[in-house]
Amino acid sequence: MDFNDTQEEAAFRAEAAAWLKANVPTADELNGLDDIAAAKLWQKRKYDAGWACIRWDKEFGGRGSSAIEQVIWNQEESKYELPGGVFSIGQGMAAPTLMTWAAEEHHKRFLPKLASGEEIWCQLFSEPAGGSDLAALRTKAERDGDDWVINGQKIWTSGAHYSDYGIIVVRTDPNVAKHKGLSYFFLDMKSPGVEIKPIRQLTGGANFNEVYFTDVRIPDSQRLGEVGQGWQVALTTLMNERASIGGGSSAVNVDMAYRIANEVMIDDKPAIEDGAVRAKLANWYVQESGLRFTSYRSMTAISRGEIPGPENSIGKLVGAPKNQEMASFCMDLLEMSGAIWDDEMSKEAGVIQMNYMGAPGLRIAGGTDEIMANIIAERVLGMPQEPRMDKGMPFSEVPTGSN
Amino acid sequence: MNFEFSDEQELLREQARGFLADNCPPSVVRAVLDGDTDHDAELWRKVAEMGWTATVIPEEFGGLGLSYLELVVIAEELGRAAAPIPFSSSVYLATEAILALGSTEQKEKWLPLLATGEAIGTFALAEGNGRPSAKSLKTKMSGAGISGRKLPVPDGRAADFAVVVGASDSGDGASMYLVELDQAGVSREAVRTLDFSRGHAVIEMNDAQAQLLGGEGGGWSALEKLMDRAAVLFAWEQVGLADAALEQARDYAMGRYAFGRAIASYQAIKHKLAGMYVKNTLARSNGYYGAWALNSDSSELALAAATARVGAIQASVHAAEENVQTHGGMGFTWEFDCQFYYRRAKLLSVNIGSEAYWQDRLITAMEQNNAA
Predict the structure, then answer these.
(1) Does any domain span residue A179?
(2) Measured by CB atoms within 10 angstroms of the end CB, which terminus of chain B is less buried, N or C?
(3) Res. A247 pLDDT band, cuts 50 70 90
(4) What class does CATH assign to B220-371?
């Protein structure tokens, strides 16, 4: 039992680290660029040197690397503060779905531009009536010649406003059971009839959108899977939500709380001397450390060419509430000043308040705490699903809140 | 990255689990709980025959000279089986104390006997309610011998000797002594604890013969180092127990029906068990960290041990409590086995320092690492 790379892994790590050191963009290069332009600059540079999407085949712009090399690359890249993020849905979710379900001509057309960052993709799954119960979505598609005509509304679509393409699940048959009436397409986000409205979040920011579809035409050639097979295709997308191995760290962590607890006073003594403070920090350290070593166990499986066990499924369920609790606690340590959210005046430049305000989103996005607990109970512990009222029922007869 | 047990260690786990399934089924635990013995002497003999008591003792002292990774595998399986034997006292504490502090003569005398299980050792620190400190210790050595009252002492009646922590006028205020318990100056009586599948005693020493174990006045820092090592081993017993409690809860929930369906299909139960799984997984992964640090004599041992111990206490106590809850009324009966884990989890959680003690040690270790 050790933490060491194998010889091949060490060689790969050295190669990756050397390339990163020589090529990460300087502040001057990024100066004046907006987030997307900066992200595109870095992605293109990686692509040109063969360091983009390294697990993909070389013909699609990848490097043909192994899973453990991907983990090592992520570790090395995360040592730098780099622009990015806007490609994760396209590269992490849309691309694997295209690889599994799309025609070869689509592979050639779309995958290299996904890898190079020239084209950004978004995911149009959730709807006002379908979140945790995704298959309850109502946006409909009707066949018209060689096209499908889409009408309806999607919601929580991150990056819709700057995306070139989107993957979408729609209802093509409302008269069969919920999961059986869905089909899966990709579409040009600039298609006529697509209307994007930003949603202002609880934080005040607006990173995601409502997307309205009014008689939007999608060619049948952009359908992935058979008509009515959309749920199966969607599962490919959902299973490819990026494994959080080596990631999941938050700016609000035990290091930060420890630092603050050494600086602020409780009854004229450093807060870190307070027993209750120590107990809380210890508990969060147990969680951080537990997640770190859980990811090491998963990495070991990957390094041996095995598939990691289910233990990595706890990451989001532990990390998201912890982030909220720790941000809340750090503000408590600051007493009244904890409420100040100001880059100049706040301790830690407002990062704590920003994390606290963003925390509810993390507990909801990509599977709520409750859905994550269901997944662990069902897939890891083998417990049965709740009985479903809509099972086998034609979708058009399923009760909703509005009838 | 190679952060996993080896194939040989996995094989050992399989053997250990099979051996305990055959030799330590619930009826064995129940027999000690129902009877008036302190432990199952037959199981102890068999466990010693398997060589488990000899695992980390060097071959020159009659041991197997294996690593701590083998020992944590065995600890996990013993915890899973809630084995009613003095393994933790004799192996994690007494053997470790002699390995760390014993003179050649002490090692030559005791280690071979500990390896074969012929001798049982224990560790005597507590002197009644509250958290002990060097200052609080009343047990003390004088010219005539050692005197004091230790309460409670796990496996105190089964043990042949105890490693006793006493006050000292020099150094850090404490020293450790090796006290043979079958002597005129020592009397011991059974003390009933909430887990009477593991015997406990009160030990009175009146000018008893005692040998210094380690240096005079270095007892408290030696104790803390010993605790770090034992904490990792205890943690693995607790991890085994926590997983067994979760499995018991899951199996019961799958077979128990209410309102026309398995209670395992209710989200209230699923989320409860998912919560147990999360704590158990964190505890296990922190156990790996502790095992690695113990086995490699890492400078991170103090932090890793406290992390493993806090995680294991939280997971095992939570799993044992929620296992009873999942069983409903049946879980509260004498007849059901839920009680084994409920008793043992709490016993182990206050043995060698409570959750609060280890939370404090964890932050102290962090402070020391940051100062270094």
Answers:
(1) yes
(2) C
(3) very low
(4) mainly alpha
